[in-house]
Amino acid sequence: MSENIRRTNGKSATIGCDAANCSYHGESDSCTAEHIKVDGKRARSTGETCCTTFRPKNG
């Protein structure tokens, strides 16, 4: 299984990632984190959300 495809209840999903400076940013602009958390309970657009899984790349 590719590292950027996660399976939950028999379903798979690829999570896109545009944060090139995140340590979880993978090939083809995908997220390689085991789990993700996105905040923005009252968000009405992507700009009002925040990925709290983000970790800066070392180096």
TrEMBL record:
It comes from the Bacteria. Pfam families: DUF1540 (PF07561). This is DUF1540 domain-containing protein. It comes from Candidatus Scatomorpha intestinavium. InterPro entries: DUF1540. Residues 15-54 form the DUF1540 domain.
